[in-house]
TrEMBL record:
Residue ranges of the region described as Disordered: 1151-1286
Pfam families: PDS5
Residues making up the signal peptide according to the UniProt record: none
Name of the protein: PDS5 cohesin associated factor A
Keyword Ribosomal protein carried by entry: no
Coiled coil: none
GO biological process, one term: DNA repair
Basic and acidic residues composition bias: residue spans: 1186-1208, 1272-1286
Cell compartment(s), UniProt: Nucleus
Membrane-crossing segments per the record: none
Organism of derivation: Cynoglossus semilaevis (Tongue sole)
Length: 1286
């Protein structure tokens, strides 16, 4: 563009002295030279120099001409700008320029010159600084307020200043820029949107990162002008957020970034904006809500933010978004909670309730992030998270999703290591989360192998870090074991047991590799590999990887050597680390970034490697134990008493003696254990004996000194120790000494001579020792024991009642309250069983006699002599002992064969005993024997009777036992190839014939056509069939149907000629067929196999016999299905008496049984009942017993209360007695029975058979009180009435 020519001024221009006329004819250098003098002149002038102001007015006007304003030379322009700035200073407050256009041109010209501030190293920078300083000091730009388009000038000025500022500018430059811009904002009428944009654009993250100084300048400017600019900012956000006018500014899409920055600068800038955000939080657009939530999360979570306390409505509205329907919004809220907890602990209370809800969120990611949020805050400072928040993490350790469970478990483990192991915050913090160790170990009870592996990893890395040196590691384990609760100790013991079992499997696999290759060997290997794979995650993949690993083992001998060393009993922890590292190195393929095969092998190695226990570790544990015994340990500092430390330390060593017996073999260890044997604490001595028993195989040959000291101690414990000590002492002698016969004889002979029934307190330990001696050495002691059993145990002890029991009416008492005589009798029963188990034959018919004795004990309800001397609680103990004894004998095949069906049924009825504890303990013993496959399958049928148990938890426990047992049997069948005979004894479906036979001989089943009794039978059948029919594997439903149909074509082997007994059997079969048909649609298909029936219970009929009779009427089927009879036609109902359908009409009597008319009827409903058809219907709801086990069996406390109620109950006009449950009385008619109005029936399969059934927890005991008084007056003593109502 051509530069304009200088026009001659209208008025002659006066120049300062020495300055010639400035025209376009002179050179640039000369022009600059002359302008410098002019600049100097104006610099020296002040506002009071009126004469000079007038003199140089023409020059001032001349300098504003186009020639200067558009001069191409930047030095000229700079000097002219400096002159103009001084002119505004000198002539202030009125500028010498009157034209608005001219003023605009001048200020735009000056603004352009300010760009020179950018280069601080320029020679002219000082002049640029002078220009800025002058403009800021005089506030020259305020003149522009009078111009219509002043906004253009200001925008240009702001843009220029924000663009030129950089990190080379000193504080003065920034200060003058600030003064210049703030004066324009604060003294103007308002800030336009365009001008506001020039400020706010510097806060956007992209610009902020490009020019940090511009951001700081804008930040400082906003802080200074907050009072003025806040209105303009509010207007901008109002238009964008509320009115949706995004076109008002190019920054509309950055509103949330701007709000965050403005809030960080000064919350006052957003005083009017926050209510608008509350409006946005309630938007219908999920993405919009998400953006607002992200913004507010940053605002509320900022370290020094007080927004939550200053704006409670907005805070509450934000908390509401924790329950937003949009998943990303809830997720964002949960992530925010972490920062909020860390920066604002005072808000934890508000967040807790919302995090509680989100910890149960259906979305896995949200539940996961709740855990991360709480754990991160806890790791920073445990005070930041309250007990409730930690409780949420605790709950999530049982989440259905593995990722969530893993995060929760690992989070708790990290907290435990930081605060409990390293004590980073003192004992108070450690105490707050002391529950973590127990909770983590409890997870080992879960079925998932992933959970088990993670617990093992946590134990090895966080609870007892294997990286610690041996002394520290064992101290950690020693005190951890002492502080664990009972269930956690069991879990830890189980963990070591599982690891030891897996080591055994690997050892067996390696042993197979040493044998010649054969099909049998390959099959055996495959079986071992399958078992190993079951102990690794993802069993399907684990099987493939284990096969591959086995192949590698076969090809690589060095690898086998390393693996053998790893599982060797003598492998130390350090050697184990080397072996694992070496095996891993051999299986690593560098080119593979991920190697799932190697990961699976690592899982296996981690489980079998002894990273904690070796000989050195056991020595360290023994030293800690010695310190506790001597009183020099840090027991109190670790939060345990010395006695607890000693006892738990011995228990720990006892457990380890099972899994690592070789590590104990040292003189020092055994010397310490001998010291423990001499301690007064019975548990300590017992544990020490057991450790000797488990580990002392080489004592006799290698440690003579220990042997000579140990033998007298063991003899003393076997003769005068506690029963448990005596048992362990006998077993210890048998396990570790070669001359065991001599040693046992030295114990047996004096004990057998000293037996005296008149001093029962001194009988218990001798009976225990004698029983175990006869079991361990039957050949040596069977004969002498026979005379002891016949003459002393049975005649003198069991058949005599020397003392009178406590008649307090309780069904159960604590062990300490049981009379010594009864304790001795219980041990006598156990002695009989041990003696028989040792002989393992019935040549002398001793087993028959014993079984008859035990049956008599059950028939007499525990009072064998029937002299009424024994208390009820003692009778409960004896019933339990008798039932357990029969069950124990049944585990030996030679005795199982001679147990009659009647004796089996007597044993089974113990599970329905009136005493809660008898039922509980018997069921547990039954389950343990069945799950180990020790008992025959018929004993699984006993659990069907649990459907009659009045206590809900007992029924639930029985169902879990059934599930476990059936699962174990199915798994065993899958893993092993079995013969047909063996299969029949294991296949769970074959329990049905035993169950049907057992139920048909139920003492309660006296009226086979009555609805109430058939309903009980149906519930018992369903209790078992529900579990069996969960899946229809191999058409098992049809197999069950066929099996029951086959039973209908047989006779009852127990009473083959008894028509009533056979009818009851067929009725139970029909009920079973009814249940199966209503449960399964596939049961009518053809059965794959013809079921075999046990000849001991069923007799085959003639070939021509065909039983196609239906024993259940249509009405009865309808009632069993719905609980209601089939409705009668309208006409048929005319003139019929109105009765309750399906109910027997009772006539009120004045007997004691009236007092029980309001007792609850326990009803365990099946899917066939109407309550299951409509789960929400309460019309047929049954009342569950809610009484505790103590209330159920503690009879006396309820007698007074119930007696008071008796009178009021008798006033009820239509009271009807509840049907009694229990065995039939021995005689059909007795005064007691007649007076009670009880129903009598002949005993099926033998008179007097049966047991009292379980009592309803809510039953009234007043009737029992009356009955017991009447029974005392009964001289015959033959009738055992039911004590409690069902």
């Amino acid at each position: 563009m051509e530069f304009p020519q200088q026009q001659k001024p209208a008025v002659e221009v006066v120049y300062p002295p020495g300055v010639k006329e400035i025209t376009d004819k002179i050179s640039n250098d000369e022009l600059v030279k002359r302008l410098k003098v002019v600049v100097k002149t104006y610099m020296d002038m002040d506002q009071d120099s009126e004469e000079e102001k007038q003199q140089y007015l023409s020059l001032a006007l001349h300098l504003a001409s186009e020639f200067f304003l558009r001069n191409p030379n930047k030095d000229v322009r700079l000097l002219v700008a400096c002159c103009l700035a001084d002119i505004f200073r000198i002539y202030a407050p009125e500028a010498p320029y009157t034209s608005h256009d001219k003023l605009k041109d001048i200020f735009l010209f000056i603004t352009r010159q300010l760009k020179g501030l950018e280069d601080t190293k320029s020679p002219q920078f000082n002049r640029y600084f002078y220009l800025l300083e002058n403009l800021a000091w005089v506030k020259s730009y305020n003149i522009c307020f009078e111009l219509e388009d002043c906004n253009e000038i200001f925008i240009q000025l702001f843009k220029t200043l924000f663009s030129v500022i950089n990190n080379s500018h000193n504080q003065k430059v920034q200060m003058h820029m600030m003064d210049l811009m703030s004066s324009i904002i604060m003294e103007g009428d308002g800030v336009t949107q365009e001008l506001l944009d020039t400020i706010l654009i510097n806060l956007i993250p992209a610009h902020k990162n490009l020019n940090k100084q511009a951001y700081d300048l804008a930040k400082t400017l906003l802080k200074r002008t907050v009072q003025t600019i806040e209105t303009c900012i509010a207007n901008f956000f109002n238009q964008v957020l509320v009115m949706g006018k995004s076109s008002v500014s190019d920054l509309s899409e950055h509103v949330f970034d701007l709000i965050q920055e403005l809030f960080a600068i000064d919350p006052m800038l957003l005083t009017s904006v926050m209510p608008q955000l509350e409006f946005k939080l309630k938007s219908n657009d999920g993405e919009e809500r998400l953006a607002v939530v992200r913004l507010l999360a940053k605002l509320f979570g900022a370290k020094d933010s007080e927004l939550a306390s200053q704006n409670r409505p907005l805070w509450q509205c934000f908390l509401g978004r924790f329950n937003d329907i949009h998943v990303p919004v809830r997720l964002e809220c949960v992530k925010f909670a972490s920062h909020c907890l860390m920066n604002h602990p005072d808000l934890a209370k508000d967040l807790t309730e919302y995090l509680k809800v989100r910890s149960h969120d259906p979305e896995e990611a949200i539940r996961h992030d709740v855990i991360v949020t709480i754990i991160n805050a806890g790791k920073k400072d445990l005070n930041l998270v309250n007990d409730q928040l930690l409780g949420f993490v605790r709950e999530r350790t049982l989440d259905k999703r593995w990722r969530v469970r893993k995060e929760a478990m690992m989070g708790l483990a990290q907290l435990y290591k930081k605060y409990c192991l390293h004590h980073e915050a003192g004992k108070e913090y450690a105490q707050k989360i002391s529950w973590i160790k127990d909770k983590l170990l409890h997870i080992y009870y879960q079925n998932s192998i992933d959970d088990k592996l993670l617990v093992e990893k946590i134990f090895a890395q966080y609870m007892v870090p294997h990286s610690l040196d041996t002394e520290e590691k064992m101290k950690c384990l020693y005190y951890l074991y002492a502080c664990l609760d009972t269930n956690a100790v069991k879990a830890l013991n189980e963990m070591w047991k599982c690891q030891n079992m897996l080591r055994g499997l690997v050892k067996e696999l390696l042993d197979l590799h040493k044998l010649p290759v054969s099909e049998a060997n390959n099959a055996a290997m495959l079986g071992k590999l399958m078992n190993i794979a079951k102990n690794l995650p993802d069993a399907g993949k684990a099987q493939d990887f284990m096969k591959k690993f086995n192949q590698v083992l076969g090809e690589d001998e060095k690898l086998r050597v390393q693996l053998e060393m790893l599982i060797s009993p003598t492998c130390s922890c350090k050697q184990a680390e080397i072996c694992v590292r070496e095996i891993t190195r051999k299986l690593t393929f560098p080119k593979q970034p991920t190697n799932p095969f190697l990961e699976m092998v690592k899982f296996l190695l981690e489980r079998i490697a002894p990273v904690h226990i070796d000989s050195e570790a056991i020595s360290a544990l023994v030293k800690l134990l010695n310190k506790s015994i001597e009183g020099t340990a840090d027991d109190d500092d670790e939060g345990v008493t010395p006695d607890t430390a000693i006892r738990s330390g011995l228990e720990l060593l006892k457990v380890l003696s099972f899994t690592h017996p070789t590590a104990f073999h040292s003189s020092e260890t055994y010397e310490s254990l001998l010291q423990c044997l001499k301690m007064e604490d019975d548990k300590v001595a017992e544990a020490a004996i057991q450790i000797f028993r488990n580990t002392g195989q080489k004592i006799e040959t290698e440690l003579q000194q220990i042997k000579s000291t140990l033998i007298p101690v063991l003899h003393q414990k076997a003769k005068r120790g506690t029963p448990h000590q005596a048992k362990q002492a006998v077993h210890c002698i048998h396990a570790i000494f070669n001359n065991k016969e001599v040693q046992l004889a030295q114990i047996f002979e004096p004990l057998s001579r000293s037996l005296n029934a008149d001093v029962p307190e001194q009988l218990i330990t001798p009976l225990v020792s004698l029983g175990h001696i006869s079991m361990l050495a039957p050949d040596q002691f069977a004969s002498p024991m026979k005379s002891i059993v016949a003459n002393f145990i049975v005649k003198d002890l069991l058949m005599n009642d020397r003392s009178v029991g406590n008649k307090n009416g309780k069904l159960w008492t604590t062990d300490e309250e049981v009379s010594p005589e009864v304790l001795a009798k219980v041990q006598a029963i156990k002695l009989l069983v041990r003696w028989l188990l040792g002989m393992k034959n019935n040549q002398s018919k001793s087993a028959n006699s014993t079984l008859r004795l035990l049956s008599a004990m059950l028939v007499s309800e525990g009072d064998l002599t029937e002299q009424k001397k024994i208390s009820k609680s003692d009778m409960s103990r004896l019933r339990l002992a008798a039932g357990g004894a029969i069950m124990k004998l049944a585990q030996e095949p030679c005795y199982h064969d001679i147990i009659t069906p009647e004796q089996f049924q007597l044993c089974a009825l113990v599970i329905n005993d009136e005493c809660y504890q008898v039922r509980q303990i018997f069921a547990q013993k039954l389950h343990l024997a069945l799950v180990k496959l020790l008992l025959p399958l018929e004993y699984l049928a006993v659990f069907a009777l649990c459907a009659k148990d009045p206590v809900k938890e007992r029924r639930a426990h029985a169902r879990q036992c059934l599930l476990k047992n059936i699962s174990v049997r199915r798994e065993y069948i899958k893993q092993n190839q079995l013969s047909q005979e063996k299969l029949i004894s294991l296949l769970p479906e074959y329990v049905v014939p035993f169950m049907i036979h057992l139920l048909s001989h139920d003492p309660d089943f006296t009226k086979p056509h009555e609805y109430e009794q058939l309903k009980d039978i149906k519930e018992c059948l369903w209790f078992m069939l529900e579990v069996l029919m969960t899946k229809n594997e191999n058409n098992s439903h049809a197999f069950l149907r066929k099996m029951v149909e086959n039973i209908k074509q047989t006779k009852d082997a127990q009473s083959p000629e008894d028509a009533k007994a056979n009818e009851k059997l067929y009725i139970v079969c029909d009920v079973a067929l009814f249940v199966i048909a209503n449960k399964s649609t596939a049961c009518h298909l053809d059965s794959p196999n013809d079921p075999l029936l046990p000849s001991k219970f069923f007799v085959t009929q003639d070939k021509d016999f065909k039983n196609d009779k239906e024993y259940l009427s249509a009405d009865m089927r309808q009632m069993l299905l719905t609980g209601k009879p089939k409705p009668a036609p309208v006409l048929a109902a005319v003139n019929k008496p109105l009765t309750v359908p399906g109910r027997r009409i009772y006539v009120k009597t004045t007997t004691a049984s009236d007092t029980t008319s309001n007792t609850s009827t326990i009803n365990i409903t099946s899917p066939l009942s109407s309550t299951t058809i409509n789960k929400n219907s309460n019309s047929n709801a049954t009342i569950e017993s809610s009484e505790s086990r103590v209330q159920e069996n503690n009879e006396n406390p309820t007698i007074k209360r119930e007696a008071k109620e008796e009178t009021s109950q008798n006033k009820t006009p239509e009271a009807c007695p509840v049907k009694r449950r229990g065995r039939p009385p021995k005689s059909a008619s007795t005064p007691g029975a007649a007076e009670k109005g009880g129903t009598t029936a002949p005993a099926v399969g033998g008179a007097g058979r049966g047991r009292k059934r379980a009592a309803d927890a809510n039953s009234n005991t007043a009737a029992e009180s009356v009955n017991s008084k009447m029974s005392k007056q009964n001289d015959e003593g033959t009738l055992r009435q039911i004590d409690l109502q069902r």
